[in-house]
Each structure stands twice: as C-alpha cells, then as structure tokens.
Amino acid sequence: MSVVDPSPVEGAYLEVAGSFVDLVASLPASLTGPGLGEWDLRALVGHTARSLITVIEYLDRPADAATLDSPAAYVAAAGELVAADPGAVTQRGVAAGDALGAEPAAYVRDLLGAVSAKLADADPDQLVTTIAGGMRLRDYLPTRSFELVVHGLDIAAAVPTHWTPPAAALRTAVAVAGEVAVLRGEGSALLRLITGREPGGISIV
C-alpha cells in the first residue's frame, strides 16, 4: 500500500494537534487550578481536546450539502451558537474535562492516534455535518487548528508555561481571525489595533 502525504490543511492540523498533546503531557496530571472563565484547567484542556473528538465524530456524519463555505463562516456561526447558549458550551467543556480521567496525557495521545487514522482514509472534499451546518472537511479542519492554537495559548497562560504554536497552524489561526472580523464588520477595528492605531494595540508597520 502506498503512503499518501496529508494535504497542507490536514498536515497543519495534525501538527498542532501533536503539539497540543505534548503540551498536555507537560502538565501535572491533576490539572488543578483556574483555566478560562468558568472553566478550571481540566475543563479548558477537555474543551480543547474536543478539537480532536469532533473531527473523529463528524467524519461519520456525512452532510447532504455545504451550508458553510469557509472556516471563517463556521467560526462566525459557531460564535452565534455560543452566544445563544453559553451554558451548553461550559457544560460540554466540563464533561470533556471529566472524560480526560486520571491520565489526561494518555487520553489525548489516544485521540490523536484515532483522528490520524480516520483522516488517513478521508477525502478532503467530503461533506461533514458540524454543529453549525454542513461543510467540506478541508474547510472544517482549519477551524480545529484555530481552536487548538487559541486554547493552547489559553492553557499556557493559565498554568503558566511556555508554548509556541506550530507556524502553519498559527498562520491559519491569524488568517481565520482576520476573516471572521471582516465578516462581522470589525475588520477596520482589527486592522487599526494591529497597526498600533488604538491604545493597547501592536504596531506591525
């Protein structure tokens, strides 16, 4: 059997997923202490692990049509769902944290093995049913890279510890964030912030 190299999108996702697994392995197994908002550290790690779990689950849920045509469209739509029922997201994170068990590092390592195996047999153009609607796998995976980068940084800040997202996934996360800002009519505000035109911003030019 010939080995097929993953697509750039899939490769970036698996790389940051592996980096997340390494991050969890560096943490105390108890995962005690504050995490993010209402989540403690365990719930935050559990929520982040769902970026592996949902890929595994959605690959078994074909969609009839793509109602979301880009990673940014998904993130924007998912954000609206969160705003409508934030308690449900909180509870899913808590439940996912509980599922990590006594050996969180082994749990997420097994998830990475499972998602890698599923993606090896997947077609990037196949349609999957997500919580926000149907979309192409190649458009869904960047949303998972986005989540892993954002929440990996949240975990590192909560511990605190040093964690650097892989460059490919970081580029994806920044690009998706910019596209979401434009979709929400906030592109100009974001641009002013990252060019140092607003207090607290950074200057890249």
Layout: helices, strands, pairs:
Elements: H1 8-25, E1 34-36, E2 39-40, H2 41-58, H3 71-84, H4 86-99, H5 104-120, E3 127-130, E4 133-136, H6 137-158, H7 167-183, H8 187-194
Antiparallel strand pairs: 1-2, 3-4
Helix pairs in contact: 1-5, 1-6, 2-4, 2-5, 2-6, 3-4, 3-6, 3-7, 6-7, 7-8
- Please bin the fraction of helical residues: 55-70%
SSE run: HEEHHHHEEHHH
Strand content: 5-15%
> DSSP helix count?
8
Largest sheet: 2 strands, antiparallel
In terms of structural class, how would the helical and strand content be classed? mainly alpha
* Average pLDDT score: 96
The total strand number stands at 4
What is the C-alpha radius of gyration, as a whole number of Å?
Answer: 17 Å
The largest sheet has its strands arranged as 1-2
For the record, give the distance between the C-alpha atoms at the N and C termini, rounded to a whole number: 50 Å
| Basic shape | globular
> Which residues form runs of ≥5 with pLDDT under 50?
none
Descriptive account of the structure:
There is one protein chain. The chain has 205 residues and is mostly helical. The chain is built from eight helices and four strands; from the N terminus they run αββααααββααα. It has helices spanning 8-25, 41-58, 71-84, 86-99, 104-120, 137-158, 167-183, 187-194, and strands spanning 34-36, 39-40, 127-130, 133-136. The strands form two sheets. Strands 1-2 form a two-stranded antiparallel sheet. Strands 3-4 form a two-stranded antiparallel ribbon. A hairpin with a 2-residue loop joins strand 3 (127-130) and strand 4. Helix 1 (8-25) packs antiparallel against helix 5, helix 1 runs parallel beside helix 6 (137-158) and helix 2 runs parallel beside helix 5. The longest helix is centred in the C-terminal third of the chain and has 22 residues, at 137-158. The model has no long low-confidence stretch (mean pLDDT 96).
